[in-house]
Write a structure and sequence with these properties.
It is a single chain. It is built from 1 helix and 6 strands. It is mainly beta. The strands form 3 sheets. A two-stranded antiparallel ribbon has the order 1-4.
Amino acid sequence: METYLESVRDQFINLHRLEFAFHLKKGEMIRTEIMRKVDLNIFSGMLGDYGFRQVQYWTDCNHRYAVTLFQLSS
């Protein structure tokens, strides 16, 4: 499965804590990829190293797939 985010306007994105910045043009798409075989606790820990915290996650009834919401810690 592939998912995409589409920029609704020209914009500059600066991810300070990741030391990464880029420009997006209106209509430009960013593909987000699905990780497989990832332990949610390990994944949360990895993102925690970059200042994110897990807010909530949702899984299918067999716990095979998950969607996770992270928030940048202040």
